[in-house]
User: Which sequence fits this backbone?
């Protein structure tokens, strides 16, 4: 049996499904490891955050919600679903 025959036999007998399963399992293992790492970093950062950082993050979240709400309500005004955008009258003031 020559080298070409051995190579042809190896290609013919190769377990493609097993290799695909192995690659898929390796990918899923790495993905879950990355997700765990990101979750742990977020948890540690939240646990060690100061009150000022938490207050700042809360204010940023509220500002982001207000921005999106303003845009949605403006579209509703333009489409004549409502007469005026009530988010215009909400003044920016710190909640905390």
Assistant:
């Amino acid at each position: 049996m020559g080298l070409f025959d051995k190579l042809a036999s190896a290609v013919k007998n190769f377990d493609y499904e097993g290799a695909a399963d192995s690659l898929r399992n390796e990918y899923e293992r790495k993905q879950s490891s990355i997700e765990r790492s990101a979750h742990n970093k977020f948890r540690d950062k939240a646990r060690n955050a100061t009150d000022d950082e938490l207050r700042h993050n809360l204010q940023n979240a509220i500002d982001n919600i207000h921005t999106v709400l303003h845009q949605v309500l403006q579209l509703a005004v333009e489409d004549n679903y409502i007469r005026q955008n009530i988010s215009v009258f909400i003044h920016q003031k710190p909640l905390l």
Remarks:
- The CA atoms of residues 50 and 56 lie 10 Å apart.
- Helices lie at 3-13, 16-47, 51-78.
- The mean pLDDT is 79.
